[in-house]
Automatic annotation (TrEMBL), chains A, B:
<dbReference type="InterPro" id="IPR036318">
    <property type="entry name" value="FAD-bd_PCMH-like_sf"/>
</dbReference>
<dbReference type="InterPro" id="IPR016166">
    <property type="entry name" value="FAD-bd_PCMH"/>
</dbReference>
<dbReference type="GO" id="GO:0016491">
    <property type="term" value="F:oxidoreductase activity"/>
</dbReference>
<protein>
    <submittedName>
        <fullName>D-lactate dehydrogenase (Cytochrome)</fullName>
    </submittedName>
</protein>
<dbReference type="InterPro" id="IPR051914">
    <property type="entry name" value="FAD-linked_OxidoTrans_Type4"/>
</dbReference>
<dbReference type="InterPro" id="IPR016169">
    <property type="entry name" value="FAD-bd_PCMH_sub2"/>
</dbReference>
<dbReference type="InterPro" id="IPR016164">
    <property type="entry name" value="FAD-linked_Oxase-like_C"/>
</dbReference>
<keyword id="KW-0274">FAD</keyword>
<dbReference type="GO" id="GO:0071949">
    <property type="term" value="F:FAD binding"/>
</dbReference>
<dbReference type="Pfam" id="PF01565">
    <property type="entry name" value="FAD_binding_4"/>
</dbReference>
<feature type="domain" description="FAD-binding PCMH-type">
    <location>
        <begin position="40"/>
        <end position="222"/>
    </location>
</feature>
<dbReference type="InterPro" id="IPR016171">
    <property type="entry name" value="Vanillyl_alc_oxidase_C-sub2"/>
</dbReference>
<dbReference type="InterPro" id="IPR004113">
    <property type="entry name" value="FAD-bd_oxidored_4_C"/>
</dbReference>
<keyword id="KW-0560">Oxidoreductase</keyword>
<comment type="similarity">
    <text>Belongs to the FAD-binding oxidoreductase/transferase type 4 family.</text>
</comment>
<dbReference type="Pfam" id="PF02913">
    <property type="entry name" value="FAD-oxidase_C"/>
</dbReference>
<dbReference type="InterPro" id="IPR006094">
    <property type="entry name" value="Oxid_FAD_bind_N"/>
</dbReference>
Length: 466, 466
C-alpha cells in the first residue's frame, strides 16, 4: 500500500484533524531526546491522534491487515529512540488522550488514559491526600503511558520503586486490533495473583507488545513532611559507604542523589552563585514521612553521615531545601553548558551498577572521558546505583561523534562488567538493543519468542528492546 | 515409558537417596493444604530431591524427552493443589535445597536456593539489620521458592507489597532442561529495565513455566520500632471507613487485619482467656519505622480511629503487643475448632475485593453460610481487601462436602462481582482455574500462548493456573 493511500485511509477512519501527513509536521516525529535521532532522524509516514480504544483498535487492525509498522508515542521525552518509526510507519501520538477517567480515593487508585502528564496527575491526586510516588526528572512533560512503557522511576526509586510497582491493571490493544485487560477484566482490587502477570510483563515492554490505552494505578498516602540533607565528601569512596551506613541505621530515604566533582564543576560554572563546595562528591538525601519521623531521620543522617563527610547540612524549611536541591536540579542543564561550542548528548547516560561498585564506576567513566578526550559530567541516583553520565561534544563534528559513540559503547560494557545493566530506567529502545544477548544470554531469545505471541507479523514498534 | 523404568532412570541419574518411589512415601506427596487434595489425593510416580541446577536440568531433559509431567514443590503449604502431580508425574521436592548462597549486605540483596524457609532467611538477614518484608502466615514452614511461585504476601502487603516487589532475578530451568537467568545473567544491580521483564512474569507463575533454582532477592533496612493498635467496632461499615481515614491521615501501616464477629466468637470459644470483646469487628493496625514515627502514628491512629470505634488500645511494649495480636494469630486454628465434629477446609479462602466493598462482601459471605447451613469464620488482611474465609464442615460427610463446594463457588463469583479476584495471595493452582476466562477474558488465551512458548509439550506442572 503506498503512502498516500495509507494516509487517505487514516483520514477516512479518524477525520482530518486527527491525522498528520505533511512532511514538516512529520519531521517533528523523527526525534525524541536520544542522540540517535539527532544523528539519524526518520520521519513516520503518518501520525495519528486516537482518543478512544476503538480508534486505536481500528488503526491497529488496519496496520495489521496491511503489514504496516505502528509505533505508540507519549511526550517524546525518551532517550532511546523508543517512539520513533525506524523504517517509517504510523506513529500513534497518545499525548492528547489525557483524560483522568476516575480518581477512586476510597480504593486508593486512579484510572487514566495514556496521555496524562505525570505532574498533572500528582496535582490532582494531592486533592485527595494521595500521590503516585515515581518521580522522573521529566515529570512536567512525560506521560503516564510513556512511564508505563519504560517502567520509569527517577529520584524516588530508592524507597518507592519503579512505575511497575503501582500498576494494577492495563487495557492493551494488541497489534492485530484485539483488546485485552490485564489484572482482571473488571477488577479494582489491590491484591490479585490470578493468572500469569501480564500487567508486569507489559510494564517496561516499550511498546513492542501492544498499545496501552487505559492504566489503573495504585496510589499511596501523601507524606506530610520532607527534609533534605546535603553532605560533602573529600573522598569519593566515602559517598557510597555513607549510603550503606544510612541503610544500616534502618533508614530508607525517598531519594539519594550524587554529584561527583565533574557535576559540581559544571553547576558552579553554569550558575556561580550556587557556589557548591569543591569536593570529590556531594550527596543529597531526601527523607519523607510524618513530621517526627523526618526530624529523627535528619538527626541520624547528620550523625551517621557526618562521620564520613566533610560537612552535613540538614534542612526542613522549604526555601532552604530548595536551595540545597538546586545544584542537583540544574545539573542536567549545567552539564550541557560546560563547553561553549558543544552540547550534551543523551547516550550511555543511564547505566545501573551495584552500590558497592559506584565509586569504581565513576572513576572508570572519568578515565574513559580522558582516554577519548571528551568532557563527561556524572551524577545520578546513587541510592540504587543508577548513574547518569553526560558526555559533552560538538555534535556537528563527525570525529567527536565517532569518539563519543566508541566511548558510550565502552560505558555500556563497563556497566555489564560491574555486574550492572546498560539501563537503569531510560530503557533499551533502539540504542541499547545490541547488548540484549550480553545482558540476558539465552533469555533474550525467549523474550523474542514472547513478542511473537503478541506480534506475529513483527509490525509492533519493530527494532526496539529485543 | 513405564513407572519402573522411569524410577530406575531417576535413581541412575541422581542416586538412590535422592529418589522416592515407595507408594507410602509417594502418598505424602498427594497432599498440600488444599481441600481438593483431601478429596482427591493423587500420588506422583516418583519424587526427586535435586540439589543442583545441573540435577534439575537433567531431570527436566529426561522428562521432556520422555513426555513425563514434572511438578516443582516447596514445603507443600499451598492451598490450591499447585504442587500436586494431578495425572501422576515426577515431583521435584526442592525443600531440601535450602542454601543461602550469599548475603550481599553492601548491595542490599541475598541469593538463595529455592528451599530456604522464610523465617530462617529473615533470621539470617537480621544479623545485617536487613529483612525481606513479605510475611506469609506460614513463615515458619514455607520456602522462598514457593513464595516466588505464588507471589506470596501475607500480613505486611499493605505497606510492603508482595514477593514480586523484591525479586531482582531468577535462575530458571525451562521444561526442556535449558537454563536461563532473568534480570541479567551476571547482574546484581537493584534497578534494571533492560529487556522484557521475565522476572516478574515468572513470579506468581505457579511452576507452569519452569523451575526456579536460584533467587536474587532485594532486602530492606529492618525497622527499629513497631507498635500495635486494637480497635473494636460496633458497626461493620465503620471498620473499612477507619482504614481509609488512616490512609487519608498520611499513614501506611505495615499491616491492618480484621476479625469479624464470626472470628471473634471462634477465638473466644477456642481460648476463652483471650476474651476478645463482643463486637461486629476488631481491627489490628501494625505500624513500623523509627521510634518517634511509630509513637506519632500510634497517637494519630488512636485519635482518628477513635472517632469510629468503640475503643482503641495502642501498645508498643512487646508483651502487650503479643497479647493484642494473639487473637489474630490463633484465628486460623480457632476457626478449625468451632464445631467438635468438623474441621476447617481450605477452599474459597482467599478472595480479594476493593476496600470499599469489604463490609458488603463479609455480609454476603455470612449470608451464604446461612443459606448453605455452613459455619463460616471470616478474617483477613483488610488493608488490601484480602478476605480469608474459613468454612467449617465435616469432610467425611458427602452432603456437607457438596454444600461447601457449591458455597465456595458462590464466594468466588461474589469476589468477581465485587470487582475483586478469586485469589489475593494463595494462587489459582488446580482449584480456581475455572475462573480464568471470567477474570481475564481474552487475556486468558494469551497466558496460555505464553505458556506454550516456555512449555511446548505441556508437561510443566499441567492443569494449574491457566
Amino acid at each position: 500500500m503506498d503512502k498516500d493511500k495509507i494516509r487517505q485511509a487514516l483520514i477516512k477512519m479518524l477525520g482530518k484533524e486527527k491525522v498528520l501527513s505533511e512532511e514538516l509536521d512529520l519531521m517533528y516525529y523523527s526525534y525524541d531526546s536520544s542522540f540517535l535521532t539527532k544523528l539519524e532522524p526518520v520521519s513516520p509516514l503518518a501520525v495519528v491522534f486516537p482518543r478512544s480504544t476503538e480508534e486505536v483498535q481500528n488503526i491497529a487492525s488496519f496496520a495489521f491487515e496491511n503489514n504496516i509498522d505502528i509505533v505508540p508515542r507519549g511526550a517524546g521525552t525518551g532517550e532511546t529512540g523508543g517512539c520513533i518509526a525506524l523504517k517509517g510507519g504510523i506513529v500513534l501520538d497518545l499525548s492528547t488522550w489525557d483524560e483522568i477517567v476516575e480518581i477512586d480515593a476510597p480504593n486508593m487508585q486512579v484510572i487514566v488514559r495514556p496521555g496524562v502528564i505525570h505532574a498533572q496527575l500528582n496535582q490532582e491526586l494531592a486533592k485527595y491526600n494521595l500521590f503516585f510516588p515515581p518521580d522522573p526528572g521529566s515529570s512536567q512533560m512525560c506521560t503516564i503511558g510513556g512511564m508505563v512503557a519504560n517502567n520509569a522511576s527517577g529520584l524516588r526509586a530508592v524507597k518507592y520503586g519503579c512505575t511497575e510497582q503501582y500498576i494494577l491493571g492495563l487495557e492493551v490493544v494488541l497489534p492485530n486490533g484485539e483488546v485485552i485487560t490485564t489484572g482482571g477484566v473488571k477488577a479494582r482490587c489491590i491484591k490479585n495473583v490470578s493468572g500469569l502477570n501480564l500487567t508486569k510483563l507489559m510494564v517496561g515492554s516499550e511498546g513492542v507488545l501492544g498499545i496501552v490505552t487505559r492504566i489503573r494505578l495504585r496510589c499511596w498516602p501523601k507524606p506530610k513532611a520532607r527534609g533534605i540533607a546535603m553532605a560533602v565528601f573529600d573522598n569519593l569512596d566515602e559517598a557510597p559507604a555513607a549510603v550503606l551506613d544510612i541503610y544500616q541505621a534502618g533508614i530508607l530515604p525517598s531519594g539519594i542523589e550524587i554529584l561527583d566533582s565533574s557535576a559540581i564543576d559544571a553547576v558552579n560554572q553554569f550558575k556561580p552563585e550556587i557556589n557548591l563546595p569543591q569536593a570529590e562528591a556531594i550527596l543529597l538525601f531526601e527523607v519523607d514521612g510524618n513530621p517526627p519521623s523526618v526530624e529523627y531521620e535528619g538527626s541520624v543522617i547528620k550523625e551517621v553521615v557526618g562521620k564520613r563527610a566533610r560537612s552535613v547540612e540538614w534542612a526542613t524549611e522549604p526555601r532552604r531545601m530548595a536551595e540545597l536541591w538546586e545544584g542537583r536540579s540544574i545539573t542536567a542543564t549545567a552539564a550541557a553548558r560546560v563547553r561553549a561550542d558543544a552540547s550534551r548528548v543523551f547516550a550511555g547516560e543511564d547505566i545501573s551498577v551495584p552500590l558497592s561498585r559506584v565509586a569504581d564506576t565513576l572513576r572508570a567513566i572519568r578515565a574513559l572521558g580522558d582516554k577519548y578526550g571528551i568532557k563527561v559530567v556524572n551524577y545520578g541516583h546513587i541510592g540504587d546505583g543508577n548513574v547518569h553520565t553526560a558526555p559533552v561534544i560538538n555534535p556537528e563534528n563527525p570525529e567527536e561523534v565517532k569518539k563519543v559513540m566508541d566511548m558510550v559503547h565502552e560505558i555500556h560494557l563497563l556497566a555489564i562488567a560491574m555486574e550492572g545493566s546498560t539501563t537503569g530506567e531510560h530503557g533499551v529502545g533502539a540504542v541499547r538493543r545490541q547488548y540484549a544477548e550480553l545482558e540476558h544470554g539465552r533469555a533474550a531469545q525467549l523474550m523474542r519468542d514472547i513478542k511473537r505471541v503478541f506480534d506475529p507479523r513483527g509490525t509492533m514498534n519493530p527494532g526496539k528492546l529485543i
